[in-house]
Amino acid sequence: MTKIVKKEIRVVNIVVSTSLEHDIPLEKMAATLSNTEYNPEQFPGLVIRIKEPKTSALIFSSGKVVCTGARSMDKVEESIAKIIKSLEKIGIKIKIKPEIKIQNIVASGTIGMDLNLNTLTMKLDNTEYEPEQFPGLVYKLNEAKATFLLFSNGKVVCTGTKSEKEVHAALDMLIENLKKI
After folding, report:
1. b/e sequence 81-111, b meaning 16+ C-beta within 10 Å
2. What contacts 59, CB < 8 A, 6 or more positions away?
3. pTM (2 d.p.)
4. Considering 2, 6, 58, 153, which has the largest number of Cβ atoms within 10 A of its Cβ?
5. Domain final residue pick, 78, 97, 116
6. Are residues 119 and 82 in the same domain?
7. pLDDT tens-digit profile of 48-76?
8. Does one domain contain both 25 and 90?
């Protein structure tokens, strides 16, 4: 395959989980805060949308929280702090500093070259490509515990990693595998 012209990738979404170690009255939250959605018949968690940084979180009555949408850990921490502050408005004081665990990082970028997805499907293991369904090739890179979406224009999306370092390592492995073809 041809030489990689330029590679670039950046984090576009970090999914984290944490526990506030406190029961949360979701009904009271939904009734008091305007930026929430709660429909317990459909889903047991409350959705809270934070404007800045632009994130969303699922909050469960057990105090477990899943936050998504942040592009950096600073923004994740800022979002969790805003959730804790909004809980104070309904009289709930969170006394702990929640331990935040990264569940998934999504990054997107380019490898700066066109890709023949039909050829890649034949020559790479662990691929799925159904152009009638979706224009990208799904490539599971097991050694990196990452999954890539590859597009014919050289754009890539990486998911499944748990740190920015892992994202870059996975991209390097992807490029090495492409060079072999």
Report:
1. ebbbebbeeeebebeeebebebeebbbbbbb
2. 24, 26, 29, 45, 46, 47, 48, 65, 83
3. 0.92
4. 58
5. 97
6. no
7. 999 999 999 999 999 999 999 999 999 99
8. yes
